[in-house]
Amino acid sequence: MSSGILRVQTFAARQSAPVPEVAVTVTGPGGERYSFTTDSEGNAPDLTLAAPDKRYSLDETNTTVQPYSTCTITAEKSGFRPMILRGVQIFACETTLAPLELIPAEEGLEGQAGPELIEIPPHSLFANQNARSGPHPVENCAARVLTQPVIPTSITVHLGRPAASASNVTVSFRRYIANVASSEVYPTWVG
User: Were 90 and a residue from 4, 53, 57, 62 both cysteine, which residue would form a disulfide, CB within 3.0 to 4.6 Å?
Assistant: First the structure.
């Protein structure tokens, strides 16, 4: 078994400012628990966690061994909603960055809204290896070519299937592209 590094950072919503003194608990791949508090810049100490050997993420024919381990991160601080981030992927010989954006609790309602729960689904390269059937056609979509490229500053993303009753969030386009890319490649790939 190899290992990877988990780096946790805590910010106020939209990464507007670091949030210090956040109580962070990490439940590792084997159920082990690590607890620490973020420093004045919102940084937690790097944590080394077990991960499957790197060769599994480099083997295109691997359909049996998940090439990463997962952990759960819980963050709590007075004045903010607690946050639980499940399914954080740890790859061998890589650093996983977990920037937690804490949401201020509404005055007088602290602790009543419940924790913000974020579930990270299995990586699409491993979860869909046997289910890949090529691109799916989009109905009622007319092709349109612009004369100039348009790069938005932000984008609204629906957090579920198209017809699902899920919330919409607005994120920076740069962050969106980074998340899309991270679900299409493994961080162990060169180039």
Answer: 4
C-alpha to C-alpha distances, 73 to 36, 48, 69, nearest whole angstrom: 11, 14, 13
Q: What confidence tens digit (pLDDT) does each residue in 1-49 have?
A: 799 999 999 999 777 799 999 999 999 999 999 999 999 999 999 999 9
Domains of the chain: 2-134 (2.60.40.1120)
Between the CA of residue 36 and those of 50, 63, 84, 116, what are the distances in Å? 18, 36, 15, 20
In the block, residue with structure tokens 């077990």: 50
Smallest Cα–Cα separation from 50: which of 7, 86, 6?
A: 6
pLDDT-derived band of residue 180, with 50, 70 and 90 as boundaries? confident
pLDDT tens string 114-131: 788 999 888 877 765 545
